[in-house]
Design a protein that fits this description.
9 helices, alpha/beta, single chain, 220 residues, 20% strand
Length: 220
């Protein structure tokens, strides 16, 4: 399947904003794009059904009539580590179910934008983590770096591990999650010089137009 796997330096780095921006940008190039949130922890009831806000955002960005269960096969209510949420529910996150959902989405779209949960090595089960899921999907990786104190270390560790795991890190995105960050430009310049991939773009603080944000990105 053709697509990208969006991971982040940490929870709250801005993966969903980047993923939806990518979807809008790709759709703007005439592609049919499906968003995929394989596992989500942190959800509430919408018309009596458990729904995750990030997964709903991906679904809305795609503009496709897709079953929610395919966009987000595993959805858990508490905002905790997904493997813990699954264990508390007596559920096991199965790779076969995730791959089947991704395959159904791929049948309806030209491109799949898959968004992970947390960071690169978040566990999903005793045998599977986010890195393993990306390997099963066979997708190149986009890394989202939340610009805040400590981001250089987090970004370099994540980028180096992604490449050591044998993945194609096709690009990274800087997301300004801390509007009061000191030496923002200096940190960004350091990341540009040290992250072993090209920067696709920068998402400014409180930007609410993912279509406009992604308009001038160099897409993988």
């Amino acid at each position: 399947m053709r697509g990208v796997f969006v991971t982040g330096t940490d929870t709250g780095s801005g993966k969903t904003l980047v993923a939806t921006a990518l979807i809008h940008a790709l759709r703007g190039q005439g592609m049919v794009v499906a968003g995929f949130k394989p596992v989500a922890a942190g959800a509430g009831l919408v018309q009596g059904q458990l729904r995750n806000e990030d997964a709903l955002a991906l679904l809305a960005a795609s503009g496709l009539d897709l079953p929610y269960a395919d966009v987000n096969p595993y959805c858990f209510a508490p905002p905790i580590a997904p493997h813990i949420a699954a264990a508390e529910q007596g559920c096991r996150i199965e790779s076969a179910s995730l791959l089947a959902a991704a395959a159904r989405l791929a049948e309806k779209a030209d491109y799949l934008v898959a968004e992970g949960a947390g960071g690169w090595r978040v566990p999903l089960s005793p045998e599977l983590d986010m890195q393993g899921l990306a390997a099963l999907l066979g997708l190149p990786v986009v890394l989202v770096v939340g610009l805040r104190l400590g981001c250089i270390n987090h970004a370099l560790l994540s980028a180096q591990q992604i490449q050591r795991d044998g993945f194609d890190l096709v690009g990274w995105v800087a997301n300004e999650i801390d509007p009061g960050m000191l030496e923002r430009d200096g940190n960004l310049a350091t990341l540009d010089s040290l992250v072993p991939a090209r920067r696709i773009g920068v998402l400014p603080w409180c930007r609410s137009d993912p279509d406009g944000v992604a308009g001038n990105w160099h897409l993988p």
